[in-house]
């Protein structure tokens, strides 16, 4: 929303660096869920891309997709943050599933659908 309105976007920087997220596009999640049900799998699976992307990078990608001139600012947080990439090897070997939508493509789809 801030990128659409050309307002400053605030991200954070922690003592151990920028927070980063393992973002999975909803269609990839839905496919994994469907395979889980179809194969009657019970147990625990990690679903993700295995790649983390900093919140600052995500803000920059959103700006790019929207053609926004919003500045991206960082606020220092005097604490530590976890940056965890999901290990989806079990989902791949058990369900034959792996994510297919790249972060940039997923963000582009979301931006396109919401305009």
What does this structure look like?
Helix content is 37%, strand content 12%. It has helices spanning 26-38, 55-66, 89-95, 103-113; strands spanning 9-13, 20-21, 53-54, 72-76. Strands 1-4 form a two-stranded parallel ribbon. The protein has a two-stranded antiparallel ribbon with strand order 2-3. Helix 2 (55-66) packs across helix 4 (103-113). It starts with 8 loop residues before the first strand and ends with a helix.
- Gross morphology: flat
Main sheet summary: 2 strands, parallel
Measure the end-to-end span.
11 Å
**Largest sheet, spatial ordering of strands:** 1-4
Strand portion = 5-15%
Helix and strand pattern: EEHEHEHH
Radius of gyration: 17 Å
What is the tally of beta strands?
Answer: 4
Percent helix range: 25-40%
User: What structural category do the secondary elements indicate?
Assistant: alpha+beta
Count of alpha/pi helices: 4
Low-confidence parts: none
Task: Round the mean pLDDT to the nearest integer and report it.
Answer: 95
How would you briefly describe this protein structure?
The chain is α+β, with helices and mostly antiparallel strands and 115 residues long. It has four helices and four strands. α2 (55-66) packs across α4.
């Amino acid at each position: 929303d801030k990128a659409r309105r050309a307002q400053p976007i605030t991200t954070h920087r922690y003592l151990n660096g920028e927070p980063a997220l393992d973002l999975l596009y909803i269609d990839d999640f839905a496919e994994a869920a469907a395979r889980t049900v179809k194969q009657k799998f019970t147990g625990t699976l990690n679903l993700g891309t295995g790649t983390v992307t900093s919140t600052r990078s995500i803000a920059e990608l959103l700006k790019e997709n929207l053609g926004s001139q919003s500045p991206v600012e960082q606020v220092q947080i005097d604490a530590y943050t976890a940056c965890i990439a999901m290990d989806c090897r079990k989902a791949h070997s058990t369900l034959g599933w792996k994510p297919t939508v790249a972060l940039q493509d997923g963000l582009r789809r979301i931006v396109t659908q919401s305009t």
